[in-house]
Design a protein that fits this description.
By secondary structure, the protein is of the alpha+beta class. The chain has a single domain, classed as Alpha-Beta Plaits, CATH 3.30.70. Strands 1-4 form a two-stranded antiparallel ribbon. Strands 2-3 form a two-stranded antiparallel ribbon.
């Protein structure tokens, strides 16, 4: 099993989760983080660290966001590993909870 970063992370990109990950399974894109499912050890440490609740177990993916499991896997092969937290974008709070953010995902 793995954990998955969901749509709400797009344009928010809080990195609190990165600091607690013992296996460095997070990868960073321009405005989104993903989890490498091959590296994730299902430790659950990242889930409560996300201030916008954008990380869930693959068993708890909400309806309509199932494609984020595949998207995390795909983008984790393309994007570099992130091992330390960084400041979030200045407008991150404004994007929290905005619906249909997939269109804003930068690859």
């Amino acid at each position: 099993m793995t954990f998955v970063v969901l749509e709400n992370c797009i344009k928010c990109k809080y990195t609190d989760c990165v600091d607690v990950c013992p296996v460095d399974c997070f990868h960073e894109g321009p405005n989104f983080l993903v989890i490498d499912p091959e590296e994730c050890i299902d430790c659950t440490l990242c889930e409560p660290e996300c201030p916008i609740e954008a990380i869930v177990s693959e068993d708890d993916i909400p309806d309509g966001q199932e494609h984020f499991l595949e998207l995390n896997e795909e983008l984790s092969r393309q994007w570099p590993v992130i091992t330390a937290s960084k400041p979030s974008p200045g407008d991150a709070d404004e994007w929290d909870g905005v619906a249909d953010k997939l269109q804003y995902l930068e690859r």
